[in-house]
Amino acid sequence: MKQTTPISSLERPLFLTSFFSHEKPVWTLADLARVSGLPKASCLRALRALERFAVIQRFEGGYRLGTRLLELGGIVQASYPARRVAMPFLEQLRDQTLQSTQWVIRDGNEGIYLDVFESRARVRMYIAPGRRAPLYAGASTRLILTFSDAHLKAEILGGAMRAYTEITPCAPAELEALIDLSARTWLAASFGELEPHSAEIAAPVFGLGGEFVAAISLAGTAAVFADEASLLGYLEAVSKTAEEVSRTLGYSGPWQTDPRRFLQEMPALSPDRGRAD
Among 2.40.70.10, 3.40.50.1100, 3.30.450.40, 3.30.1300.10, what is the CATH number of 80-269? Predict the structure, then answer.
């Protein structure tokens, strides 16, 4: 994505780091200059500055993110005290279900999978810690949107939405219906919305004052969640874990997750949503 507004020399190093992702973790100088729209000489100066502070590492194949970011990532995680409370519960949920468990928080118009306990199932879906997803697609991120303010909801519903798969809910009416169901049942589910043959279910975590803190989710292959009895069991498990974490954080209000109602109403929104891809 070429920048349409001018980038100052001070901003260029950080601007270049925004192109590194799970999908493309390695870049050459020529490729970075091409996608950023910056002169190659400017890119090189910015990369050298990042390299001096171990933010970028140069190797034979080009450039990749450096080890300093591992340290900074640890500091970021430590700055969220609620997640420290949640970690033993997430690990227990993973061991109970054998599926991947996630702690997902909001960052602007996206959700971040801040912590991931990887599945122990023989066939599994891998979610990298630090992965980002839009708030309109995926169970945990859409649950974040459900408990966000009206201004953010209007911004997402009125903005452009990318179709990651054929099932991504990009129509405002469909997205509003999903948000409404999650608001009434405190649960969310997605089947193949971000990646084919994937599934995720999520429940909210609340803090002492009743504020939304994060989403806890279970993720795996869609086949694992295909039959109704299994899906109900997973919904009840993630709901129980979310409540336990919320109570530990001091939440004292009523717990309103309703797995059976959610399961009953979910297929009515989309005939394909309750089936494996």
Answer: 3.30.450.40
